[in-house]
């Protein structure tokens, strides 16, 4: 599904120097690389504040808490997402309320969100899934009309845009992940909290380090959730390349879609006119219950593919499914299949995946 060795090889001299410089400095926690990366990331994303944290999941938890969301509050969220999105809501004592998704983007359906708002709702948490933006205009309007906050889960969409603005800069706060497989990936865990609000930023900085910004002075119950200095150094090397890498992902995705769009039973990804899709994943829909057969047949042909996500979050025992159901969510979970994609993927590998997909669809038809 993904190879990191080519990217590492291309950047090796810069990466090696950056990491060794940190080791030689002896400054490993909240050092100059974290401070510099926060400034550089904030400028890149078009936000006032960026706070380096230990993971995308911690960024979500800190975002929600920094906005005052907690016990008894409801947060509207998609069920079709990685578990960490919903887990973050539960961990702060709030209640996830599941809304359905739009079939083309796999992101929150504003109409479903509007119907899910209650007197206890405090926030909407859209997920920009697979690299495509949620429909932020209507979601922000719902939030404004109902006096809610919007927290963007931007873990899969670094450098993506909506109506020309960087994702992560639109809501009250946003969370990014730098898990190694992400479009901008570290060499371990890492995350970023961003906001335009000075006071919210100060609260996030407090929470990431045991509720303290002055040594031995604790103002809140916080976390050990700091971005590591070595990971910040790695991310600083990679940040200037991320837009080029995303363009390569878009080029590969375009080739996939050109070749696979006419195969009966497959639906290729779409891209809304006001969105720049960055293809963290290239995700097909496979009709007529043949998804699992296609997955197995591709494996037989030597091509990796992955199902993100076979069980929506409302299907796990710790959460209550919505009374009216989530038909588009359930349909997506039964149909989606992601093909290999990474920026350095050679044309021959792309063509091999295309040919294997054609062969596999013929075999299972």
Overview of this structure, please?
It is a single chain. This protein has 365 residues and is of the alpha/beta class. It is 41% helix and 14% strand. It is built from 13 helices and 13 strands. A seven-stranded mixed beta sheet has the order 1-9-8-5-4-2-3, with helices on both faces. The protein is globular and about 65 Å long. The mean pLDDT is 97.
Keywords:
single chain; 365 residues; alpha/beta; seven-stranded mixed β-sheet; three-stranded antiparallel β-sheet; 13 helices; globular
Strand content: 5-15%
Percentage of residues assigned to helices: 40-55%
Q: Report the end-to-end length measured between terminal Cα atoms.
A: 24 Å
Largest beta-sheet details: 7 strands, mixed
- The secondary-structure class comes to alpha/beta
Supply the number of helical segments.
13
Mean pLDDT: 97
Shape type: globular
For the largest beta sheet, what order do the strands appear in spatially?
Answer: 1-9-8-5-4-2-3
Helix and strand element order: HHHEHEHEHEHEEEEEHHHEEEHHEH
Question: Mind telling me the C-alpha Rg?
Answer: 21 Å
Number of DSSP E strands: 13
Residue windows where pLDDT falls under 50 for at least 5 positions: none
């Amino acid at each position: 599904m993904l190879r990191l060795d080519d990217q590492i090889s291309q950047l090796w001299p810069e990466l090696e120097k950056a990491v060794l410089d940190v080791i030689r400095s002896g400054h490993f926690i909240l050092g100059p690389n974290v401070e510099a990366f926060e400034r550089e990331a904030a400028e890149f994303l078009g936000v006032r504040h960026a706070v380096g944290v230990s993971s995308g999941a911690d960024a979500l938890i800190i975002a929600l808490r920094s906005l005052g969301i907690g016990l008894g509050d409801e947060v509207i969220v998609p069920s079709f997402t990685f578990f960490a999105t919903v887990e973050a809501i539960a961990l702060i004592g709030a209640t996830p309320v599941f809304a359905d998704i739009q079939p083309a983007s796999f992101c929150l359906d504003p109409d479903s969100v509007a119907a899910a708002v209650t007197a206890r709702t405090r926030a909407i948490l859209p997920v920009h899934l697979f690299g495509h933006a949620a429909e932020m205009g209507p979601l922000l309007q719902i939030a404004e009309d109902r006096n809610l906050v919007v927290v963007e889960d931007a873990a899969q969409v670094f450098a993506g845009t909506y109506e020309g603005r960087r994702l992560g800069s639109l809501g009250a706060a946003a969370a990014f992940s730098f898990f190694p497989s992400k479009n901008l990936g570290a060499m371990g865990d890492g995350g970023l909290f961003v906001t335009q609000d000075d006071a919210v930023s100060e609260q996030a900085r407090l929470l990431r380090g045991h509720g303290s910004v002055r040594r031995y002075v604790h103002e809140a119950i916080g976390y050990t959730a700091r971005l590591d200095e070595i990971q910040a150094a790695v991310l600083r090397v990679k940040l200037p390349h991320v837009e080029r890498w995303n363009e390569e992902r878009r080029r590969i995705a375009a080739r996939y879609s050109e070749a696979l769009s006419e195969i009966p039973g497959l639906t290729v990804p779409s891209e809304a006119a006001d969105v720049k899709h960055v293809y963290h994943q290239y995700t097909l829909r496979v009709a007529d219950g043949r998804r699992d057969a296609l997955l197995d047949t591709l494996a037989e042909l030597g091509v990796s593919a992955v199902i993100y996500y076979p069980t929506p979050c409302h299907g796990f025992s710790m959460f209550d499914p919505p009374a009216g159901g989530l038909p588009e969510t359930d349909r997506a979970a039964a149909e989606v299949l992601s093909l290999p994609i990474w920026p350095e993927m050679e044309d021959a590998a792309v063509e091999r995946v295309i040919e294997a997909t054609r062969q596999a669809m013929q075999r299972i038809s």
